[in-house]
Amino acid sequence: MAGIKMVHVPYKGSAPAQQDVIGGRVPLLFDVLFSSMPFVQDKRMKVIALSSPKRAVSNPDIPLIAESVPGFSAVSAIGIIAPAGLPPALLQKISADIGQVVRSAEVTARMGQLGMEPVGSTSEQYTAQIRQDIDKWAAIVKTAGIKLD
């Protein structure tokens, strides 16, 4: 969206990428806030901007990419995925139980400390979000001409 060209360096997880940023081998990385915060807090890394559409409740002083590039949004989500053939009653029970835990005061507080914002959506809402994300990123991949080797 901003016309910036970057070289993608594939890593098997955040930890090796974070170490390469700290060690000066790569200049930056896109990472989830909760994973990088320990390095930000001990001043080994600095947050430039968040890719979310709104500022983090836990760190409202961190600017957004969207403040410089209107409309930019790249949000990661953590969710529970089950096999397609799971009986609907069991799916509903698991979804309700997980939602209740995620929305509990203890989990909400801990997630907030980590820079995460709990949702606790239904399985239908999460499925819709996944489909929406697939459509969004498929269009970006096509527009950018990204090819997988």
TrEMBL record:
Pfam families for the chain? TctC
Q: Transmembrane residues, as ranges?
A: none
Question: What are the boundaries of the signal sequence?
Answer: none
Check the record and name the InterPro entries matching this protein. Answer: BUG (IPR005064), Bug_dom1 (IPR042100)
Give the family, as the similarity comment puts it.
Belongs to the UPF0065 (bug) family.
Q: Quote the protein name from its UniProt record.
A: Tripartite tricarboxylate transporter family receptor
What organism is recorded for this protein? Ramlibacter terrae
